Amino acid sequence: MTNPSIQKTLALAGLAAILAQPSFCAAGDVRSAQPADLVLFHGTILTVDGKDSTAEALAVRGGKIVAIGTTQEILRLAGSKTRRIDLNGRTATPGLIDSHAHIADGGVGELYDVQLGDATTVAEAVSRVRAAVAHLKPGQWLEGDGWDEGKLAERRYLLASDIDAISPNNPVWLEHTTGHYGVANWVALRLAKISASTPNPQAGTIDRDASGQPTGVLKETAADLVRDLIPPPTPEQRRAGILKSIDSLHREGMTAVKDPSIEQPTWDAYAQLLKEGKLKERICVLWYAGTTMDSARKALRETQAYPRPPQSLGDGRLLSCGVKIFMDGSAGARTAWVYKDWHRNSVDVDTGNTGYPAVDPELYRQQVRLFHEAGVHVGTHAVGDRAIDWVVDTYAQVLKDKPTKGLRHSIIHGNIPTDHAIDTMALLQRQYDAGYPELQAPFMWWIGDTYGGTFGPERAQRLMPLKTYLDKGIIWGGGSDYSVTPLPARYGLWSSIERETLKGVYGSHPFGTAQAVDIHAALRSYTIWNARQLFLDDRTGSLEVGKDADIAVWTQNPYNMPSRELRNLHCEATILGGEVVFDESNGHHVPGQ
Ligand SMILES: [Zn+2]
């Protein structure tokens, strides 16, 4: 209920403000409507709109931004029941978005697996595994995540021989941080029937020592021989994993995520949380398309069982965005598909190894054609230069045969594009609203000490050419690929600018600084450009009248703080669709309710 005379006063005030302040920007109905539900004022609002404009204050009603302007203007829209957030000089930005984060699987891993991401020696990793094995019954699986030879003092893989003695009765699988390889102990290798006489599976590598014995390290499809034996998470564990990740996202000012490569149980977990009103994050998923036409048709049915984006479930909370295909592997594992041999330790050449495609290239092309003709968005994982060329040429071909605007087909990771690939991206973006790199600048930091070794000095300079993209008018989506790198988007803002490795094994800047961009471009890549890749650009990604109120509040202004400190950017509050989902000043996280 609203007192009509108050309403009238507000109407007049609003009108006066509009007349007095031509820059005041308000929705048409503000003058005659109820007071705002929420106002933020006395701050710096980085709107990330088309002009990158800033303001002091904004008002929210019904979950939408209804006005942006000066503190004085906005406070006129507040009534007795309006929640007032005095920014007191702090900065608000659009809620940050990640276009590639495995938040469902990653959350499960964080809750239930042994964490090895910060292990600095083989011995430390082994002792954590030993401690965890002590709690298991014989025969029970032990899973670990996140190790990286680039972070281990020994600069070598973890091997079966490191963990055999401490786990004689339990199968162990320790996944590398990239998710493209890992190490199994002998118990697990025996269960998977892997021995010296086992041939490499198609698109997979069983790592072997000089005598031909498996070392325990399994790459790409070879890792599936072991992974497929591990019991999948229960529905309860999936649900807990997602909620854990959403909590982490809120603490980092992040309000939307593209979760790539999911299957039905993950979708069901998201849908169930949505039904319960607990999905306090915008999630756009890609269904895993597999490596055959049958698996592609299955993914097509799965994605088409739900509304076509930008339509969503739960008013912009859950979107069945499209499908994901893997064109190749990883630059960490030296399995990504490249033109020139991979390197070891930066200088040594891994002679004869140019990686391999993860799927038959011609079959990949048929898969893309199937999806494209059905009007379905495709994201393809492509790391190596040769894989990226194949992907952009495929997109160009299917778009030429069936010109369609707005499917926004993407090149996931797109680590080392050739000049041809870059020019093709520019063309596809202009002509078809497709061909977008969805990349993860924090690779240069978190796995940069492995990447510095495998790419080699020359190729490393081509890694994530953001400056070239800007110069050519190419836009990209930023991301973490969590749990490949840590989830907070602030690391990506920082990495886009600093391009610095974690440990400096091959120097702190093996990828050069010529391709660095500034914070304005970096922030766009984690807001409005990502919103586009999640098919949410009409409702989020910038702070503009009419959009959903997805807002992050920061202690510092990212536009004028030293860029080297961006990695420590501190979030104080997060608002999703007008609801405060994290408020540090309350001393606690607003519960998921
Ligand atoms: Zn990924």
Describe the structure.
The structure is a single chain. The protein is of the alpha/beta class. The chain is about 30% helix and about 20% strand. The strands form five sheets. Strands 9-16-17-18-21-22-23-24 form an eight-stranded parallel β-sheet. A hairpin with a 2-residue loop joins strand 26 (about 570-575) and strand 27. The longest helix is centred in the N-terminal third of the chain and has 17 residues, at about 5-20. It is globular. The two termini are about 25 Å apart. Residues about 1-30 have low confidence and may be disordered. The structure holds zinc ion. Zinc ion binds near residues 100, 102, 260 and 481.
Question: How would you summarize this macromolecular structure in one to three sentences?
Answer:
This protein has 593 residues and is an alpha/beta fold. The protein contains 20 helices and 27 strands.
